[in-house]
Every structure is written in C-alpha cells, then in structure tokens.
Design a protein that fits this description.
alpha+beta; 5 helices
C-alpha cells in the first residue's frame, strides 16, 4: 500500500534513533550481523528526508538472519516488533519494516544482505558521497522535492521517480568508494 510522502528538515534525533536501533538489533540477534549501518537521507546531516530511518545490515549468511527472524519480529522497542517482508522484490535481500506504535506511520526500514552483495557498497557509497559532497546532497534534495511534489500520496511512485538519479550517483560513488563506513 503506497504511503504519503512528507519531507522534513534533518534532525540530530535521526542518527540518535538509528544508534539505539542498531544496539537493540545486535542484542536481539547476537552474531547475526557482521555490520549495521545508518543509511539513507536521515543519515546525511542537513538533508531533508522522509522521517523513516533506513538501516543496512550485513550478515555472513542470510540463513543467520532467517534464524533470527522470530527474535527480530518480537523486538519491542516502544511497540510492536519488526515485520518480516522477505526479499520484498529484491533478490538476495531480507527486509524488515517497523511502524510507529502511536501513529501507525512507517518509521524504520531494515535491509539485510550477505557479505559481498553489491547492494551493500551501493548503499554505503551513496550515503558517503552525499555526506562528503554538499553540492551533490543539495542536488539530491532538489530531486527529492521534485518527486515529492509529483507524488505526494504515493511513496512507491516517489521512489521510482528518483531512482534514475540515485542509481546514477550511486554508480559513480561505488566506482570511487574507498570502503569507509
């Protein structure tokens, strides 16, 4: 079901929230994650974003995430646990979502891939490029605003609208990425 698109100014609460979520995920599923990263627009200081925290998990084996599924689904964190979405249209990914218990609005996405999956570099390199290049981040904000104006009530159409832009920048970022993270 498509969700409304509402961009808001960046806040330091987003990385704080991401840090707490990462700690809780590690505690709930010990050994399941090789690494966890805060990605997406909420991880880029100063960038307007939908108020949805995106997290990226790296695992040595997707079977470890599948084995931890019930622990993650039951992880409370001020309300209901994570909702398992399987691959959700992207081969090699395991995807979870969380909704805010008070508003019902989506507030967190967790994308998990096995070590070596190119999607890991795509997400982290894209985030790192936006952090390092204010002009690129500003251009992305303009693209996000354009797509939000075109698709204010359809988060899927919004994502599709900005996909060519993000894919182009991410491809360049991955080519020049040094693997910081």
């Amino acid at each position: 079901m498509p969700r409304p698109v509402a961009l808001m100014p960046w806040t330091s609460r987003w990385p704080e929230r991401a840090g707490a979520l990462i700690e809780a995920l590690r505690a709930a599923a010990p050994g399941a994650f090789v690494a966890l990263h805060h990605i997406g627009s909420t991880a880029v200081p100063g960038l307007m974003a939908k108020p949805v925290i995106d997290l990226l998990g790296e695992t040595g084996d997707l079977a470890r995430i599948e084995a931890a599924r019930s622990a993650l689904e039951g992880l409370g964190l001020e309300g209901p646990g994570w909702r398992w979405r399987g691959e959700n249209g992207e081969a090699g990914r395991r995807y979870f979502t969380r909704d805010d218990p008070e508003t019902g609005a989506r507030d967190v996405h967790l994308h998990v891939y096995a070590a070596g999956d190119p999607a890991l570099a795509w997400h982290v390199a894209f985030r790192d490029r936006l952090r390092a290049e204010p002009a690129t981040a500003a251009a992305y904000e303009r693209e996000k605003s354009r797509c939000a104006a075109l698709h204010p009530d359809d988060s899927r159409a919004y994502a599709a609208c900005k996909k060519a832009w993000t894919d182009g920048v991410a491809a360049e970022a991955v080519r020049g990425w040094g693997g910081s993270g």
